[in-house]
TrEMBL record:
InterPro entries reported in the protein's UniProt record: DedA_domain, VTT_dom
Gene source species: Oceanisphaera pacifica
Record-given protein name: DedA family protein
Pfam families: VTT_dom
Record keywords: Membrane, Transmembrane, Transmembrane helix
Domain VTT positions: 53-157
Length: 193
């Protein structure tokens, strides 16, 4: 089935839309708090569609992601009991917060860098940083560095790879999509306990 190639074509149309930077900004902000769709899913095709805007898009994603992280921090800091904790409980994510707290205790601020740069769910750590009253300025600075490195790397690779990379991506998009979906389901089944 060629579901992912159709989705890719749709995403490329959105990436060329005149409001694409607004959508990227909103996605970047929300992804740092609760949204499950990674910023890279929109950033990469936008960069492929308009390579001259690669650094602008990466900067936009970085700034709005860190602004979202600040909001996530505020939720954890000021609204844990009335809003965040009941939501976490309803989703069954108490264990993930416990793991985040343990990681903070063991690695401190490095957890923010790791979560901001890797596919580890950054949102869990932004809210937990607020819950634990982590020093705010270091939180922002490390988030800027980690998110910036990630998004500028994605944009840089897309700009550098250009048409050749897009051709390879189109050729293998369905295989990549199905493998990613299977890996995500397996990871979910293994980690849900």
């Amino acid at each position: 089935m060629k579901i992912f190639s159709r989705l890719y074509q749709l995403v490329m149309k959105w990436a060329m839309h005149r409001h694409a930077p607004v959508y990227l900004s909103l996605n970047s902000f929300a992804e740092s708090i609760f949204w499950p769709v990674p910023v890279d899913v929109m950033l990469a095709p936008m960069t492929l569609a308009k390579p001259k805007s690669a650094w602008f898009y990466a900067g936009l994603a970085t700034v709005f992601s860190v602004l979202g992280a600040c909001f996530g921090y505020l939720l954890g800091y000021a609204l844990w009991d009335p809003i965040v904790q009941p939501f976490i409980a309803s989703m069954g994510y108490e264990g993930k917060i416990d793991i985040a707290e343990a990681w903070f205790a063991e690695w401190g601020i490095w957890v923010i860098f790791i979560a901001s740069f890797t596919p580890i769910p950054y949102k869990v750590f932004t809210v937990t940083a607020g819950l634990l009253s982590m020093a705010f300025l270091p939180f922002i600075l490390v988030s800027l560095v980690g998110r910036g490195l990630r998004f500028f790397l994605v944009s840089g690779l897309m700009k550098w790879g250009g048409v050749k990379m897009e051709a390879k991506l189109i050729r293998y998009i369905d295989l990549i999509g199905w493998v990613s979906l299977i890996v995500a389901v397996i990871a979910y089944l293994l980690l849900r306990n």
